[in-house]
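Hi V.,

Quick status before I head out on leave. The structure for the redesign project is tokenized and pasted below; the design run finished overnight.
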């Protein structure tokens, strides 16, 4: 059921048993926000909770179901898995201890976490906070699928990395690694003066003083009040997500909180109740490479701009859940959206859409149209953008673009000359005549930054070209394939080719690149036939697995 914004504020007041003033936004903005949230996260499926803060005024609401089986609705007090929003919370704990003199941010992590293997001990605490340590990510280890369902102690996670090596010289590059925050959580436990565990320290030093009454360290076996169940989608219906023990993520992704908690945390930061304003400004300043380039990440927070003002944020995703927390310090606005439907629309995109509406720059809703690929083939090519970047537009099996040879982003045709990314606010408009020296486009990025681009002659670089299927080879691939963990992948024939269905996910089209070699366009997933009809090798996001045909 959708409620008028004024009624929703009243409902939130009743839930919170506190006095919260109505949000200082027009009824029209709140009505649009309510309608969008209800349309995309409401109903009888997995839902979402939202927190919006505008100056001193707050708005809290819930949509959809916290538990589909029992049809229990989401409220402002529903506890969601935060995923990587755990990182800024871990970072705040480290910064607290640094303010108190228990940690030197420029001290080597090996001096504070002696369980670390010596070859990984050189980075500083500051390097780890800013993902400039060179520590590899333990989630890339091949044994992770076999152990992800069982509780694990922090020292045992560190022991998994006994043979790992630094990926680069600490402080010279930026590379996101969950292991940084496993180590930082171990340091918190080692140095806090009361000898508390990581989770106990967070409760004492952050959750309690901030008023985060629904926040917990998430253990699968624990009884947690108002815990949301997590859901994926198999292409037909929502399904319970694959069980994952969050202790494997530890300080990188093991926490739970409610929308009410995110409001309390944001207010606690504003009032400097957790760390000083000086410390917070340091955390909210981008780290620099030795060449002076900004990494876009501070100490536990992404940092940048949105609609011309300073923005600080973090996102999170973990089996069945997705989350986002964005703060605009200069305009005193903030938003958090927590969802227990990984398959639901991207919450980061939704949050940015709402903030843009609050700033008087509403983004239209894009609607998909059936693509006539041949009609757009002349638009394929290279476009030089205003800032000097090179955008490549590729047309085959759909339309996609990349910038400066980076990741390809799939586009959906929105009618007319509009193409948009379904997972983002990014979109582009092509200006005729396509393929000529006068061809041009307007690119609007995910942060709604806009620039034009003009056609530039030259061949596309880094394009994956599909070739026709071989009927016999395709027949050998169709069926169920087992991972070492026991999970099954399914390859099936569709009207236009082959699809690969990962556990708990809808089927996605795969394309033949060469004999025995296949790939997905929408995700970094490849498949190789190693023994026709018997074994295949699948590489998922850089992790390779050998699969056997299921009996």
């Amino acid at each position: 059921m959708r409620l008028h914004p004024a009624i929703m504020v009243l409902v939130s007041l009743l839930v919170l048993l506190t006095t919260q003033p109505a949000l200082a936004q027009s009824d029209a903005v709140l009505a649009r926000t309510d309608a969008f949230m209800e349309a995309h996260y409401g109903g009888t499926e997995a839902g979402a909770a939202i927190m919006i803060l505008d100056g001193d005024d707050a708005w809290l609401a819930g949509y959809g179901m916290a538990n589909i089986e029992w049809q229990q609705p989401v409220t402002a007090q529903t506890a969601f898995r935060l995923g990587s929003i755990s990182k800024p919370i871990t970072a705040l704990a480290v910064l607290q201890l640094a303010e108190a003199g228990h940690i030197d941010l420029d001290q080597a992590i090996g001096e504070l976490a002696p369980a670390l293997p010596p070859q990984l001990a050189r980075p500083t605490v500051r390097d780890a906070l800013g993902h400039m340590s060179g520590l590899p990510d333990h989630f890339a280890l091949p044994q992770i699928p076999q152990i992800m369902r069982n509780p694990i102690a922090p020292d045992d996670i560190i022991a998994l990395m006994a043979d790992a090596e630094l990926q680069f010289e600490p402080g010279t590059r930026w590379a996101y690694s969950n292991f940084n925050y496993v180590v930082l959580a171990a340091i918190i436990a080692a140095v806090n003066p009361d000898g508390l565990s990581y989770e106990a320290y967070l409760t004492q030093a952050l959750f309690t003083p901030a008023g985060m009454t629904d926040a917990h360290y998430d253990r699968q076996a624990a009884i947690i009040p108002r815990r949301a169940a997590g859901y994926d989608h198999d292409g037909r219906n929502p399904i319970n997500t694959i069980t994952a023990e969050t202790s494997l993520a530890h300080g990188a992704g093991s926490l739970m909180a409610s929308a009410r908690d995110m409001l309390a945390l944001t207010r606690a930061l504003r009032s400097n109740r957790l760390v000083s304003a000086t410390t917070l400004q340091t955390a909210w300043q981008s780290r620099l490479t030795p060449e002076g380039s900004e990494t876009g990440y501070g100490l536990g927070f992404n940092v940048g701009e949105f609609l011309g003002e300073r923005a600080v944020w973090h996102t999170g995703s973990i089996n069945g859940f997705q989350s986002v927390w964005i703060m605009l310090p200069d305009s005193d606005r903030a938003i958090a959206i927590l969802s227990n439907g990984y398959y639901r629309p991207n919450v980061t995109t939704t949050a940015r859409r709402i903030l843009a509406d609050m700033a008087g720059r509403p983004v239209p809703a894009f609607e998909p149209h059936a693509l006539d690929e041949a009609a757009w083939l002349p638009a394929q090519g290279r476009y030089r953008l205003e800032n000097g970047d090179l955008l490549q537009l590729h047309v085959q099996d759909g339309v996609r673009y990349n910038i400066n040879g980076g990741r390809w982003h799939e586009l959906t045709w929105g009618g007319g000359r509009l193409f948009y990314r379904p997972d983002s606010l990014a979109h582009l408009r092509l200006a005729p005549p396509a393929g000529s020296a006068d061809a041009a486009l307007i690119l609007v990025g995910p942060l709604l930054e806009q620039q034009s681009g003009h056609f530039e002659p030259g061949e596309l670089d880094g394009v994956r070209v599909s070739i026709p299927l071989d009927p016999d080879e395709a027949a050998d691939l169709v069926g169920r394939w087992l991972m070492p963990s026991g999970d099954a992948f399914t390859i099936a024939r569709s009207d236009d080719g082959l699809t690969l269905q990962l556990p708990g996910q809808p089927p996605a089209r795969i394309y033949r690149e060469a004999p025995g070699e296949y790939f997905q366009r929408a995700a970094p997933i490849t498949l190789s036939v190693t023994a026709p009809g018997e074994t295949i090798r699948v590489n998922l996001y850089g992790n390779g697995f050998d699969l056997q045909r299921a009996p």
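Above is the designed sequence. The chain is about 25% helix and 25% strand.

G. will cover questions while I'm gone.

Best,
W.
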